[in-house]
């Protein structure tokens, strides 16, 4: 390694020297194309056909899209999906940032408490939903034991507000540990010299959090929010097990409505169109977040280089 005229290290072979070639990414690329791109193309083609699951699909042009445009349940499902996603981001983001920053420290019993807190992350969404379905049973669950707290008949899932609150809570209970883990790793990578300089200046804990820790977590916040948005828009099993889209259609989010159209109404053409709508919305939101936050222009800088 030589040095340039500016005194900076110069690596022989240019900036790409030592990096693996495209052949290393070929297996992953083929896997992604086979199990993601090709099925997506198939769904896009299917959205312009009429198919009940038997026989051959029949091309019907834009009929499926016209049906969706005038479908009130579809419009309501998009609103409900957006609402649950926004509630998830608003609740999980501050919680996971605070817990992740705390878990990155060296407090007494921190490792034990963190391990217990991360247990929900090890469970499947179906298992978590079954668990909370049993706990919230109005006759044999917590509402039956603490009727004064839950009030009425104890059927928390019997109203739209109650069902949405439960879905938001269960989602946060399961997935906040994942985002906490992201913030824990990011908080530990903050250079200690920044905090040492702040101590010399007399900055307190709160000032250091807002002036040092939070700005250093910017990249992680963008990544975490994108994961929350995509996950929130594609949530399905939690709604299927906890509320079945009810009461009525009050919690019929878009992913669940797609399931109903495909496997209850056997209208796979419309279901494919709904799936494509979800892909377009999730991709658009992700790209907008990346562009607005400048995430695509961010790069890592090693301390001292």
Automatic annotation (TrEMBL):
Pfam families: BPD_transp_1. One of its GO terms (cellular component) is plasma membrane. Gene3D superfamilies: MetI-like (1.10.3720.10). Its main location: membrane. The keyword DNA damage does not apply. Residues 74-289 form the ABC transmembrane type-1 domain. Belongs to the binding-protein-dependent transport system permease family. This is Sugar ABC transporter permease. One of its GO terms (biological process) is transmembrane transport. CDD domains: TM_PBP2. The chain crosses the membrane at residues 21-48, 78-99, 111-136, 156-175, 221-242, 268-290. PROSITE patterns: ABC_TM1. Keywords: Cell membrane, Membrane, Transmembrane, Transmembrane helix, Transport. It is a multi-pass membrane protein.
């Amino acid at each position: 390694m030589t040095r340039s005229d500016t005194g900076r290290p110069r690596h022989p072979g240019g900036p790409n020297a030592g990096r693996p070639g495209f052949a290393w990414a070929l297996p992953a690329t083929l896997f992604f194309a086979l199990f993601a791109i090709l099925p997506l193309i198939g769904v896009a083609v299917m959205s312009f056909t009429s198919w009940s699951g038997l026989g051959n699909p029949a091309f019907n042009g834009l009929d499926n899209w016209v049906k969706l445009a005038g479908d009130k349940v579809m419009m309501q499902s998009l609103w409900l999906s957006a609402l649950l996603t926004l509630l998830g981001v608003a609740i999980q983001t501050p919680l996971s940032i605070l817990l992740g920053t705390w878990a990155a420290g060296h407090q007494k019993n921190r490792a034990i408490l963190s391990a217990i807190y991360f247990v929900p992350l090890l469970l499947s969404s179906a298992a978590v939903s079954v668990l909370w379905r049993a706990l919230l049973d109005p006759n044999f669950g917590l509402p039956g034991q603490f009727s004064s707290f839950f009030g009425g008949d104890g059927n928390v899932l019997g109203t739209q507000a109650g069902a949405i609150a439960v879905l938001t809570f269960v989602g946060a209970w399961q997935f906040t540990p994942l985002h906490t883990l992201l913030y824990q790793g990011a908080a530990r990578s903050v250079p200690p010299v920044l905090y040492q300089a702040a101590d010399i200046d007399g900055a307190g804990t709160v000032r250091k959090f807002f002036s040092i820790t939070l700005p250093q977590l910017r990249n992680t916040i963008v990544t975490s929010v994108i994961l929350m948005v995509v996950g929130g828009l594609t949530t399905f099993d939690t709604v299927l097990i906890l509320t079945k889209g009810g009461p009525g259609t009050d919690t019929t989010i878009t992913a669940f409505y797609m399931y109903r159209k495909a496997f209850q109404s056997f209208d796979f053409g419309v279901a494919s169109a709904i799936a494509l709508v979800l892909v377009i919305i999730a991709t658009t939101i992700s790209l907008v977040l990346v562009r607005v936050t400048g995430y695509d222009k961010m790069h890592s800088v090693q301390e001292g280089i």
